[in-house]
Automatic annotation (TrEMBL):
Domain (ABC transporter): residue spans on this chain: 6-241
UniProt GO molecular function: ATP binding
SMART domains: AAA
Keywords: ATP-binding, Nucleotide-binding, Transport
CDD domains named among the record's database cross-references: ABC_Mj1267_LivG_branched
Keyword Transport in record: yes
Origin species: Hoeflea poritis
Gene3D superfamilies: P-loop containing nucleotide triphosphate hydrolases
Entry protein name: ABC transporter ATP-binding protein
Entry-linked InterPro entries: AAA+_ATPase (IPR003593), ABC_AA/LPS_Transport (IPR051120), ABC_transporter-like_ATP-bd (IPR003439), BCA_ABC_TP_C (IPR032823), P-loop_NTPase (IPR027417)
Length: 243
């Protein structure tokens, strides 16, 4: 595999007697969209947590970004190095506008000056194709899809080289998922590597170049999406019956 940007080696996370992530190893190539699937409780979000240090790192194992170990670093240092993420639950300041929310993210996550923050907030709005006329409205008045756009822009405002998205299609309609599909492809083409956790398989299979499936914290399958979905164990236990 050429030019790896992320290298996870035997990553493990335990909580008392529970092993939530069990010796997971994989490599992500610079510039690709890497999909992660699995049922609820399979360890997907926990894997993102230990990679970004939010709110914890791995119990054992290593996480390397651009060839350097980042496990053990403070979360803000990991984010400022170029590895940014979103979360399953949309989070915004309801009384602040999208522009104001992005400026806060740029200052606190990206360490930017006020001037830089405003400039990058406007750039992030453009990158996610957000309606500029609505960018100054209170976030509480935004639609579900607009809140998803804002969530992605909040990560992009720090100008990351890797964007980690945790179920961005949750709650969206089919037309909105198609818009999100195009948006992710566009962001990726701009040079951003994407790791995508998703239960909406139509989106995951459409955009992912490789797919990893977790089962009870361990890797069940990994490879080209078409090959992974043909794996009988994957189809029966995790993908069968899903939309």
């Amino acid at each position: 595999m050429s030019d790896p940007i992320i290298d996870v080696r035997d990553a493990t996370k335990t909580f008392g007697g529970l092993t939530a992530v069990d010796r997971v190893s994989f490599t992500v190539t610079r510039g690709e969209i890497f999909g992660i699937a699995g049922p609820n409780g399979s360890g997907k979000s926990t894997l993102f947590n230990l990679m970004t240090g939010i709110p914890y790192g791995p119990t054992n194992g290593e996480v390397r970004f651009n060839g350097e170990r980042i496990d053990g670093r403070p979360p803000h240092a990991i984010a400022r190095s170029g590895l940014c993420r979103t979360f399953q639950k949309d989070a915004e300041f309801p009384d602040l506008s999208a522009i104001e929310t992005l400026q806060i993210s740029a200052v606190y996550s990206g360490g930017q000056s006020a001037g830089q923050a405003l400039e990058n907030a406007r750039r992030a709005i453009d990158r996610v194709q957000f309606d500029e006329a609505r960018a100054h409205m209170p976030s509480s008045e935004l639609s579900v899809y607009e809140k998803k756009q804002l969530m992605i822009a909040s990560a992009l405002v720090s100008e990351p080289s890797v964007l980690m998205l945790d179920e961005p299609a949750s709650g969206l309609t089919k037309p909105e998922i198609e818009r999100l599909d195009a948006l992710l492809v566009d962001v990726n083409k701009s040079g951003v590597t994407i790791l995508l956790i998703e239960h909406v398989l139509s989106l995951l299979l459409s955009v992912s170049e490789r797919l990893l499936v977790l089962n009870q914290g361990a890797i069940l399958a990994e490879g080209l999406p078409a090959d992974v979905v043909r794996d009988p164990a994957v189809a029966e236990a995790y993908l069968g019956g899903r939309d």
